[in-house]
């Protein structure tokens, strides 16, 4: 696919963005005034004989060549194509006219996904490409730090450095990118804490999964504007903040699975009206399920397997019309009403390894007794029975079309995230 003409591929890229990120793209990329940037580099030694399509390409030529010389491994011989003046046909490089000049041609996008290039740093490379709007480098072996000079890139809005060898603390430099709307740093070796400001950025997608972040979930988590939020496979602790309700107009997919979250599920979850996927499996969450979850009219997948949840599975949740997968196995639920039993027979509800009398595949009486001896307490106990919506009258479960490709679940593989639905 990388052999395709650069322009058409960039348009394809624009297309997926126009579906997903249109407001941001217009707002950030095309409405930004070009601020007459000073040259980021000292005047380079551009070979006079090379005939560049545009002066802007001549300017980035030496930057690319210097970077090329730092690459220590290139198993697919990508950099062999990085020769001569035709930068727009180098593999991984895409040009289009920049927002500030319709008749110019500029290096707008870099897509190194899957190239497996090794280089000690991207410092001095992406921060020196003034027209860059997208940088995607999934599955390479880049390391080092992100240069603070990245703030000089007025058009950059997608940064994907997933599945690389970045380590150390959260890359604070990203806070200086003025128009960032897509941040993907999953599958690296970042550790320490995620600064709470991340949840105040105007992002559409935030992928932090499969790092080594160790901290309490920040209280301002709900300030996020992201549609896709993946914090899975880290060491987040503490309860899911009630502030999550603030994201009720935007949040579509949330992955908290495989962390060390504690506490009870907040009633406020039931207000996330755009929610399609919520996965907090394999944590230490406890308490009953809030009945408010039955108000999530768009919810298709709810995974809370492998926690310490108990009580009755709310009938109102099982009646929720769009549910395709309700995974509650390996908890301590004790009661299941008729609607939930129907869902179980359909294979939508998995309630194995719980404490439900008379159902096969449950925990032993001893195990259930030991669990129930342990007193547990949730704040705002009355909130668990509240249903803050008009409940649908029947549970017809219309079979929806072909299974949709959930963006967040594709973020759990090391590959580039697939936005095509
Ligand atoms: C726009 O780009 C063209 C082609 O590079 C250039 O000749 C022209 O001077 C630029 N216009 C402005 C206003 O910068
Ligand atoms: C339902 O979701 C769980 C947890 O994500 C997954 O393991 C299981 O395979 C899913 N079941 C179906 C039928 O898709």
From TrEMBL:
Keywords assigned by UniProt, alphabetized = Leucine-rich repeat, Repeat, Secreted, Signal
Q: Where in the cell is it found?
A: Secreted
Q: Which GO terms describe its cellular component?
A: extracellular region
Entries under Pfam families matching the protein: LRR_1
Magnesium as a keyword of this entry, yes or no, is: no
Task: Give the InterPro entries listed for this entry.
Answer: Leu-rich_rpt (IPR001611), LRR_dom_sf (IPR032675), LRR_extensin-like_regulator (IPR051582)
Give TM segment ranges.
none
Classification via SUPFAM superfamilies: L domain-like
Its protein name is Leucine-rich repeat-containing N-terminal plant-type domain-containing protein
The organism's taxonomy opens as: Eukaryota, Viridiplantae, Streptophyta, Embryophyta, Tracheophyta
């Amino acid at each position: 696919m990388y052999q395709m003409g650069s322009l058409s591929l960039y348009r394809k890229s624009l297309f997926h963005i126009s579906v997903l990120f249109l407001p941001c793209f217009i707002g950030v990329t095309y409405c930004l005034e070009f601020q007459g940037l000073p040259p980021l580099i000292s005047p380079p030694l551009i070979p006079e004989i090379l005939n560049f399509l545009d002066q802007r390409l001549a300017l980035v030529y030496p930057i690319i060549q210097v970077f090329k010389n730092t690459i220590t491994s290139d198993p697919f011989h990508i950099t062999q194509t990085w020769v001569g003046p035709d930068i727009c046909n180098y593999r991984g490089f895409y040009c289009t006219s920049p927002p500030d000049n319709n008749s110019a041609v500029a290096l707008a996008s870099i897509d190194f996904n899957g190239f497996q290039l090794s280089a000690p740093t991207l410092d001095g490379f992406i921060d020196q490409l003034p027209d860059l709007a997208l940088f995607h480098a999934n599955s390479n072996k880049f390391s080092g730090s992100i240069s603070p000079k990245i703030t000089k890139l007025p058009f950059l809005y997608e940064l994907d450095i997933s599945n690389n060898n970045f380590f150390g603390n959260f890359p604070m430099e990203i806070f200086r990118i003025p128009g960032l709307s897509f941040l993907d740093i999953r599958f690296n070796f970042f550790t320490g804490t995620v600064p709470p400001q991340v949840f105040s950025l105007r992002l559409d997608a935030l992928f932090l999964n499969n790092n080594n972040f160790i901290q309490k979930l920040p209280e301002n988590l709900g300030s996020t504007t992201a549609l896709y939020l993946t914090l899975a496979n880290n060491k987040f602790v503490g309860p899911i903040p009630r502030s999550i309700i603030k994201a009720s107009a935007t949040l579509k997919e949330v992955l908290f699975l495989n962390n060390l979250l504690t506490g009870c599920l907040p009633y406020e979850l039931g207000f996330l009206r755009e929610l399609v996927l919520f996965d907090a499996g394999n944590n230490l969450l406890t308490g009953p399920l809030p009945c408010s979850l039955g108000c999530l009219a768009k919810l298709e997948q709810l995974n809370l397997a492998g926690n310490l949840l108990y009580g009755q599975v709310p009938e109102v949740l099982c009646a929720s019309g769009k549910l395709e997968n309700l995974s509650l196995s390996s908890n301590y639920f004790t009661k299941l009403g008729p609607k939930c039993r129907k869902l179980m027979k359909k294979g939508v509800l998995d309630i194995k390894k719980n404490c439900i009398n008379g159902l096969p595949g449950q925990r032993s009486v001893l195990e259930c007794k030991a669990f129930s001896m342990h007193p547990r307490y949730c704040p705002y106990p009355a909130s668990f029975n509240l249903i803050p919506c008009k409940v649908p009258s029947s549970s017809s479960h219309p079979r929806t079309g072909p299974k949709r490709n959930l963006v967040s679940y594709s973020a759990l593989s090391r590959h580039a995230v697939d936005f095509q639905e």
